[in-house]
Design brief:
Blueprint: E1 4-13, E2 16-26, E3 30-35, H1 42-49, E4 57-62, E5 77-80, H2 92-103, H3 108-116, H4 132-144, E6 150-154, H5 162-177, E7 181-185, H6 189-195, E8 198-203, E9 206-212, H7 213-218, E10 224-229, H8 232-241, E11 245-249, E12 252-256, H9 260-270, E13 274-279, H10 284-292
Parallel strand pairs: 3-7, 3-8, 5-6, 6-7
Antiparallel strand pairs: 1-2, 1-4, 8-9, 10-12, 10-13, 11-12
């Protein structure tokens, strides 16, 4: 049984279907990116997981149990939602102390998570003086407070500067390496591509793709190859005669449906000098646009 299981999850708001028969698993020891354009149903799905909205049908469970059925849920699931709020007059340390006391977490966890998110030196400052990035770090600290095996983070990079994003990337990898199941909802595709192991893509409330990142980037066109040739026009014509789709950018050809070995063999038959030859994967942005039908 996976740490997180979503099965045939649907949610309607009146006549509007926000999520439609969505099913996926989140595995332990891996970072999973949850992607989709605005209005795709990501936030509704996360809220259904966390018991904040009731599904119209289907289920969203942790180890087979709904969130509201978990004993001491903070020790099972840590979450950061986009609308995280704090008492502006409290310090970060006191905010976490209140959460720890309320949930029954060991007092020592407060200092541990402050160190993890890099807020120890600023822990006694009032939160109203925090930057957006510092508030985001504090929200992540609160999610880690119960040392949970599952982390659900909605747009965790919001407000972080480039060093902060680099820190977040390392943190997510560390959490997965420790055996946690990490689900990250994000629209920052470049960062997701550098961080995640698996991808779930939804649009219009429906699942469009799921699986390991390299599998999703591969797409449905089969292999693809990038070749730089001395005579790209002649090579391109030969490749098209063999049934391959070819896109040209200067002296570089992007060949869809052919491996580097196949392209090299055709170039050899045509006696076209090859200056560079390598497999080519779609970027995450290309895959995202293709799968969701979103506009660039």
């Amino acid at each position: 049984m996976a740490p997180v299981e979503v099965r045939d999850l649907s949610k309607r708001f009146g006549d509007f279907a926000a999520v439609k028969s969505l099913s996926f698993d989140i595995e332990a020891g891996r970072v999973t990116g949850f992607l989709g354009p605005n209005g795709a149903g990501k936030s509704t799905t996360l809220r259904a997981l966390l018991g904040l909205v009731r599904p119209s049908s289907g289920s969203a469970t942790f180890g087979g149990m709904r969130y509201e059925e978990l004993e001491r849920p903070g020790t099972r699931v840590g979450a950061v939602l986009e609308d995280a709020s704090f008492h502006p007059g409290r310090s970060a340390r006191n905010h976490l102390r209140v959460l720890a006391a309320t949930a029954g977490h060991p007092a020592g966890r407060v200092e541990a998570v402050l160190a993890t998110v890099g807020l120890t030196d600023a822990a006694d400052r009032r939160i109203k003086g925090y930057s957006m990035g510092m508030r985001q770090r504090l929200a992540i600290a609160a999610a880690l407070l119960g040392d949970p095996p599952v982390l659900i983070l909605d747009e965790p990079a919001n407000g972080l500067d480039p060093p902060g994003i680099s820190w977040l990337r390392g943190l997510l990898r560390e959490q997965a390496a420790a055996g946690r199941a990490v689900l990250v909802s994000s629209h920052v595709l470049a960062e997701v591509a550098q961080t995640v192991d698996d991808v779930i893509v939804i649009a219009d409330g429906e699942l469009r793709a799921q699986g390991p990142l390299d599998q999703v980037l591969g797409g449905d066109d089969g292999p693809a190859t990038e070749v730089r040739a001395h005579d790209p026009v002649r090579l391109g014509e030969a490749l098209r005669r063999c049934g391959h789709r070819v896109e040209r950018n200067g002296d570089v050809l992007h060949v869809l449906g052919a491996t580097p070995e196949q392209v090299g063999e055709i170039a050899g038959r045509e006696q076209v000098a090859v200056l560079g030859l390598a497999p080519r994967a779609r970027s995450l942005e290309e895959a995202f646009l293709s799968l969701t039908g979103a506009r660039a």
